[in-house]
Amino acid sequence: MLTQDRFRVPNHQRDYSWTPGEINQLFDDVQDGIARGADQYFLGLMVCISGDENTLTLLDGQQRLATAIIFFSAVRAWLKQVEEYSEDAQQIRDDYIGRRELGEKIITPKINLNSTNNPLFQQYVVSDAPLSDIEKHLKTLKKHDRNFNLLNSIIVCSNRVRAIADKSPDAKAAAKSLIEIVKYMHENVRIVRFIVQDDASAYTIFETLNDRGLDLTTIDLVKNHLFGRISSNDTPRIKELEDRWAQMMFTLANVKANDFLKVFWTSRHGRTQKDNLFQNLKKSHRSTKSAIDLSTELVRAAENYAALESPDDVVWNGYSAAAKETIAALKIIGSAQTHPIILAALDRFTVTEFERLLRLLEVIIVRYQLIGGERTGRLEIQCAKTAKEIFDGGVKTAAQAKDSLKDIYVSDADFRQAFQTKEERSSSKAHYLLRKLEIEERRIASSDGARVSDPGIGLTIEHILPKNPGPEWDDIVRSDPEIVEDCIYRLGNLCLLGKLNKEVGRKPFSKKKTEYGKTDVLTTQSLTHHSKWTRQQIDQRQAAMGKRAAAIWRF
């Protein structure tokens, strides 16, 4: 394939997505085939659309083909270091990576990836950039960035080549081993190439293959279905859809696209199982107009969904500081089940009611899930039902939403009881709870009604009874041997502390009290009222915190 033709990946195709596990599996299989003397290794089916000038549009197979080229590039880079094999390095480039045509200055690559991946693919694979540049660039990317897997695969393949070379006694033997793999891939790794005339034929094939068990993601199937609704001759609409799809995928670069699709569909149609999502969407969007309309909805919904990751997103520009703080809080405490409600309400609620709804969702998540520890499945069912009611117009206010969610709104009594024994091992969640308690303490202490100051983000979690208590705590531990295991992560044993935190450490409680008295954190200052720190004090403090919490997290 690579020696005969060139390939392009259309912009609406998914990004390069192979992980180290898939890359290593491929080359483990290839090396195993060489070791066993296997005549061939079958790499599967690749689907293309015929094109002009020896360029095929690659609809299925880009992961395998691009990975092979990345590996060849890594072999070329290694061989270039050994003067004796510089011509072999050049031949690998010309045969499998890209070649400079007569009279041209730039290299014509064997494959062009989609518009997101292609610039870095050409820079780091085709043009053979230093590995240090790639490693430096990768460190700047988040894990869900659309180019993360591409750059990571270059490093994985380079490490693979280096490991093969390092096992050899000298450079000549290393070069021989690497060239042997290249030859085996050329002569013995086989594929079935299926060339079709247009997109519609290809998408029919994809759906058939998926019914036979081919592992296509939901986002791939939806994309294939939407493009399949448009005639291959309708170039303007195909271009319009390509642009929208590319915009949506760019927006979703730092989140999971398949999770977005489920949330989007749930926000409009109620609870949907992932296995049924594509079939349900396919039934609802059969016409060309429906496909175009859906693409517009997806772009807008993707922007709203991505905004849930950051209170600083432009989506929240028209909302209050309190609403933005709630968005941040929902991310900390884990509120994925509420996302369909938020997406539906962004399209249906006024700004005022939407902000009240955010507050309601924060209260419910804290009561039901964070403190109550109740089943997430029930939460998902209730939130999906309410989301559909909002989208359909039956629920128009936060108060009505509370009524819709009443079955998962935990009562004050149950909330206080659950709070009294709550452990929290997540520092971010513990910090959130203690910070809210501190703000309420300051509000109560404020006699003149002035604006209550926020304790800020420079505070960290302090375990009053240390995780690893020193000899100074022997009396407490001897009298209650289970106290460390039972109480270390209890909310009653946690407090907020600033720069003094490192100085406190494992000191006895009598000395910790002195440091606690120096802080301006009121809930930490109050610890100075205790003469000792045992299970009894932890229980009492946490019970008092529970009473205060019921007032803080109430709608």
Would you spell out the secondary-structure blueprint of this structure?
Blueprint (H helix, E strand, L loop, with lengths): L5 E3 L11 H17 L4 E9 L5 E6 L1 H19 L5 H12 E2 L8 E2 L1 E2 L5 H9 L4 H9 L8 H19 L4 H17 L1 E8 L2 H13 L6 H11 L6 H17 L5 H13 L4 H11 L3 H20 L13 H13 L5 H10 L2 H21 L4 H17 L5 H7 L7 H9 L6 H19 L14 E4 L10 H6 L3 H5 L6 E4 L3 H4 L4 H8 L5 H4 L9 H18 L3
If you had to describe this structure to a student in words, what would you say it looks like?
The protein has 555 residues and is an alpha/beta fold. The chain has 4 domains: 6-197, no CATH class; 210-307, no CATH class; 314-410, no CATH class; 422-552, no CATH class. 59% of the residues lie in helices and 7% in strands. The chain has helices at residues 20-36, 62-80, 86-97, 118-126, 131-139, 148-166, 171-187, 199-211, 218-228, 235-251, 257-269, 274-284, 288-307, 321-333, 339-348, 351-371, 376-392, 398-404, 412-420, 427-445, 474-479, 483-487, 501-504, 509-516, 522-525, 535-552, and strands at 6-8, 41-49, 55-60, 98-99, 108-109, 111-112, 189-196, 460-463, 494-497. It has a 5-stranded mixed sheet. Helix 2 (62-80) runs antiparallel to helix 3, helix 2 (62-80) packs antiparallel against helix 7 and helix 10 runs parallel beside helix 13 (288-307). The N and C termini lie far apart (64 Å).
